[in-house]
Design a protein that fits this description.
This protein is mostly helical and 105 residues long. It contains 5 helices and no strands. Helix 4 crosses helix 5. The longest helix is centred in the C-terminal third of the chain and has 14 residues. It is globular.
């Protein structure tokens, strides 16, 4: 994940370096739900979110168990947009590549 979203990091340095999309999407990062991180305020940025994420305590060791949390889905969405290389945000990529093509407004 950090190879396409360099500002991504977790409190566990091993998890920060080795976290793949598969880990993030299958809830194997060691992070629990951490409800207090969400929801973000309207003026919060991706960098604000990622900074908060970096300080969250893991609940289990990286890749040791599945523990659901929504935060990594936010990360993978933004990382996917960055990997596309179009220079657009996640929201712009989602609109152009999915909603517009499906005729959705």
């Amino acid at each position: 994940v950090s190879s396409v979203l360099p500002q991504f990091r977790l409190k566990d340095p091993v998890a920060s370096l080795q976290c793949r999309f598969e880990d993030a999407m299958s809830h194997r990062t060691g992070l629990p739900h951490h409800k207090m991180l969400m929801p973000l305020a309207k003026n919060d940025t991706l960098n604000t979110f990622l900074d908060r994420l970096a300080h969250l305590e893991p609940h289990t060791e990286f890749r040791s168990t599945v523990e659901y949390n929504n935060h990594m889905w936010t990360v993978t969405g933004h990382a996917t947009a960055a990997a596309l290389g179009d220079g657009v945000t996640y929201e712009e990529a989602l609109k152009a590549r999915i909603f517009d093509k499906a005729g959705m407004k």
